[in-house]
Amino acid sequence: MSNSTTGAQLVIKVLEEQGVKHVFGYPGGAIMPIYDALYGAPVKHYLTRHEQGAGFAAVGYARSTGKLGVCFATSGPGATNLITALADAMMDSVPLLAITGQVPTAAIGSDAFQEVDVLGMSLSCTKHSYMVERAEDLAEILQEAMYLAQSGRPGPVLVDIPKDIQLAKVPFHPFAAPQDEQPKVSQTEVAKANQLLCDAKRPVAYIGGGVQSADAQSQLMQFLEKTHMPAVSTLKALGSVTPDYDYDLGMLGMHGTQAANLAVQQCDLLVCIGARFDDRVTGNLAKFAAGAKVIHLDIDPAEVGKRKPAAASLIADLKQSLPQLECVVTNSEWLETIEALQRQHAWRYDYPGEKVFAPYLLNQLSQKLPNTAVVCCDVGQHQMWVAQHMKFSHPSNHLSSGGAGTMGFGLPAAIGAQIARPDNTVITVSGDGSIMMNIQELATIRRNNLPVKILILDNQRLGMVRQWQQLFFDGRYSETDLSDNPDFVSLAAVFGIPGQTITHANQVDDAVDAIVNAQGPYILHACIDDKENVWPLVPPGAANDEMMTESLS
Q: Would you tell me how many other CB atoms lie within 10 Å of the CB of residue 473?
C-alpha cells in the first residue's frame, strides 16, 4: 500500500488486509467516496434494499461463520436504519463493524442535510463507537474497531467517518493489535467448582450463547459425554449440545420443554456455561432453581452474579475453563429421573385436525434438511416452534434474534448466511407478520441469484401477541388481525422466486420435500390455524415449574 492514499481508499484497504471478503450496504451522499473506492476492489459488496437489511445480513454472515460482519450506510436516515441491527448484535454478542458516512467536519453541529448524531445514538448499543475527527487517525481507528468487535465478548462497533476525511490524503500506519490476553482461570475458583461437582446429587448444565462465541462446542461435548450431566440450552445456544446426546433436554424458559424446566427446578447444582440468566429463561428469578448452587463460567465478569449469585465463578474463555472442570459422573438415580421426564413430556405430532400443524411441519423439515443446513428465524410463535421442534448439529446452524427479539431479522440474516456459506442449504422460517418487515430483500435474493429457501407460517395474525391477548387480556384482540395479507407466493413470483401454498395437513410431506430439494430460491407458504398457540408457556411472574400447557379458554 502506498504511504499516502485517500481516507476512502484506506477504508477498503484495511478491510482487505484484515481478510474481509464481503460487505453489505446501501450508498448515499455522505459515503459516496467509500463506494467510489469499492469500485473494482476485491472486497465484494452486496447491495441490500434497506440499511436494516444490510445490518442483519452482516449479522447473519457473522453468526453463521464466527467471522466479522461488515455493513455500510450513509449519514442521517441511512445510519439510523442500522441502529436496530447494532442493538441486536449487542444483545447477542455478534462481531459486527458498521461504517457510516457523516457530513463534512465543518458542517457537524449545523443541522446540515442528513446530519444525525449517530455516535451519540449508538453508544448504548455498541461495544464502542468512534467519530473520526482527524484524517491521520483513520487507519488506527479502523483497525482498533475491528479488533474490539472480535475480542473478548464479541459485539458491534461503529465508525462514523465525515465525508471530508474520506476524501483527504491520509497516511497508513500498520496497527499492532494487542495480544488478546484471555483472563486466567482462578485456581481457587476451580477448586470450589470441582468440590461442588463432587458434592452434587442432581446437577444440570445450563448452556448459553457463549459456547458459540468461544467456539467451545468440542470442549462442552467432552465435558457432557464424560459426566452424562443433563443439559438445557438457551435459544441462542441451541445446537451447542449435539442431537445425539442422550441427556439433552432442549430449550428451557418461557417456552422451553417441560423436561428442561422441571429438571432445572429440581436440580441442586446448576453449571452455567456462557449464559446470563435472562428473564425469558428464569421466569420468577427468586423461584428459579431455588434449591441449587451455581457454578458460573463466562468471559464477561459483568455477567457473573448480575442476576443469580454464584458459589464458584470461572471468568475466562470457555475453551480454557471447561477442561478444568472435574468430570464427575452423574449419579444413576438422577439420570433415571431425567429419563422419566423425557418419556413423560416427549413431543406429540399426532394432531387430529385437517389444518397444517406447524410443529409437525417443522419436525419433518428438521428430519429432511442436511445437518449442515442453516435455519434462520424471525420472531414470534414460529420462532418458538423452531426452537422446540427442530434439531441442530452446531449453534452456527440456528440463527435467531434472541436478546432483542427483532421481527424482520430472518430474511436478511439468511441472505448473509447464504453468502457466507454458499455450499450449504439456508432456509428462513418466518411468520406472516415478520416477513413483511423486510420483504424488500427478496430483491437482494433475486439480484444475487441466492438459493435461499423461505417458509412462511401464516395464521393471518400477529400470533404471539394474539396468544397473550387471549390468555392475559380477556380475549381483547387489539390490532393483531392480518387477514389482509398479500398472496405471498404471487409476491415472490414477481421477484422470480417459485413456490407453493399449502392449507391441509395431507400436503405437508410433499411440500417439505419440495422446499428441501429446490435447487434455487423457493417459498413455501403454509396456512396454519389462527388459534394455534405455543405450549408450554410460563406465565408472567410464575416459576418455570408452573407452566401452562393448554388454553385457558
A: 12
* Statement: the pTM of the whole predicted model exceeds 0.85: yes
Q: Select which of 265, 464, 467, 469 is catalytic.
A: 464
Task: Examine the residue annotation and report whether 113 is marked as an active-site residue of this protein.
Answer: yes
- Nearest alpha-carbon partner for 130 in 92, 160, 164: 160
* Calpha distance 323→144 (Å, rounded): 31
Question: Does the annotation count 488 as an active-site position?
Answer: no
Domain 187-344: which topology? Rossmann fold (3.40.50)
* C-alpha cell of residue 536: 408450554
Catalytic residue among 13, 127, 163, 192: 163
- To the query of whether residue 548 is one of the catalytic residues in this protein, the response is no
Residue-wise pLDDT for 76-135, tens only, equals: 999 999 999 999 999 999 999 999 999 999 999 999 999 999 999 999 999 999 999 999
Our answer to whether residue 21 is catalytic in this structure is: no
Q: Pick the catalytic residue: 1, 44, 113, 226? A: 113
Q: Specify the 3-state DSSP secondary structure of 546.
A: coil
Query: In this structure, are residues 154 and 93 in contact, taking their beta carbons and an 8 Å threshold?
Result: yes
Q: How many Cβ atoms are within 10 Å of 176's Cβ, its own excluded?
A: 8
Q: Which fold has domain 4-171?
A: Rossmann fold (3.40.50)
Give the cell for residue 440.
424488500
Kindly report the CATH number that applies to the domain delimited by 358-527.
3.40.50.970
